[in-house]
Design brief:
alpha+beta, five-stranded antiparallel beta sheet, five-stranded mixed beta sheet, about 25% strand, 8 helices
Length: about 325
């Protein structure tokens, strides 16, 4: 069995005595007798190795970040041996998961804090005497309702996302007629005045899916289009073949930059155009489609609108 960690034995002159295949891959080390390389600009592997031969060798490991990768590096002192040992482990996935979880908690706390602060501030005003003035009281009570509903929507979105990601919400697969589903979603869109919303799908197009999850995924994408599209059209189109059904949502909105495309499915990510929302719609859509065994792709260019393609298993409709 090959070790996934890179292991390098070096002598006191910092020349390689032995390196396993993982070390060759992770560090680009050469053959025995070659000098130990310094592959990272912000951390010296050679300095660490030299200290392993000194009177006060380092203990523990060091997390090294470079070029969007993370490495855990440890050294075993030479002691009475002629060589010291360097151990390098690629922990990029683990660190990215930790970073993602940390950002999720921080963002969730921030999003929850905003409506809560608004509710508390309004309550303070009401208790300060505004409740005795009918018009003022009614206006502030409306504020409380608006922020309470926002808080409720956020809590629901967070719960759905958590259930999807942990697998608690299991899909209940049935044959889903796609055209009626798209018409239902289109009919509920709150689109800008003058924006045409159309559905293009054959009556016999079907999908093998959990209808609620598929509805949630497509509706979230379509609602995102409605938020950003001020002129032109939003099209919900479906087509199928023997194995898959492709559902396309495209709009004539402002489009996305490369950075926005790369982060579009990240939780809590919102573009800089000032639209309202929590930045969870596309993240939930991605998890829902993944739970259905499908795929979701996004194409967009600045000034050229956005196209999202959802692909799920197809199902034949009868009758």
């Amino acid at each position: 069995m090959r070790l996934p960690q890179g292991v390098v034995l070096v002598d006191s002159e910092l020349r390689i005595d032995h390196a396993n295949p993982a070390a060759e891959r992770l560090l680009g080390v050469g053959s025995p007798g070659d000098p130990l390389p310094d592959p990272w600009p912000d951390f010296s592997l050679r300095d660490l190795a030299a200290r392993l031969f000194g009177p006060d060798p380092p203990t523990g490991g060091t997390l090294v970040e470079t070029d969007h990768h993370f490495f855990w590096v440890e050294g075993v002192p030479a002691s009475t041996a002629e060589t010291a040992i360097l151990i390098v482990d690629d922990v990029t996935e683990r660190e990215r998961a930790r970073q993602s979880e940390r950002e999720f908690v921080e963002n969730a706390a921030h999003e929850l804090r905003t409506p809560l602060a608004a509710i508390v501030s309004v309550m303070d005003v009401l208790e300060g005497g505004a409740k005795d003035i009918p018009e003022t009281r009614d206006r502030f009570l409306k504020h409380i309702r608006v922020h309470s509903e926002r808080l409720s929507r956020l809590a629901t979105s967070l719960l759905v996302l958590a259930r999807l990601q942990t697998g608690v919400e299991q899909p209940r697969l049935t044959v889903v007629p796609v055209r009626p589903l798209l018409e239902e979603i289109a009919g509920r869109l709150d689109s800008a005045a003058g924006v045409e919303v159309s559905v293009r799908a054959h009556e016999q197009t079907g999908a093998l899916a959990d209808r609620d999850l598929l509805h949630r995924a497509i509706a979230n994408v379509a609602e995102n289009s409605a938020k950003h599209t001020q002129t032109g059209e939003i099209v919900l189109e479906a087509r199928g073949n023997a194995t898959t059904t492709q559902i396309e949502i495209r709009d004539t909105g402002p489009g996305m930059s490369e950075e926005e495309r790369d982060r579009a499915f990240h939780r809590f990510y919102r573009s800089s155009n000032g639209t309202d929302g929590f930045g969870l719609g596309l993240a939930i859509a991605e998890e829902a489609v993944r739970g259905l065994g499908g795929t979701i792709e996004l194409e967009s260019e600045p000034g050229a609108g956005t196209r999202v393609l959802v692909v799920v298993p197809s199902a034949k409709l009868f009758g």
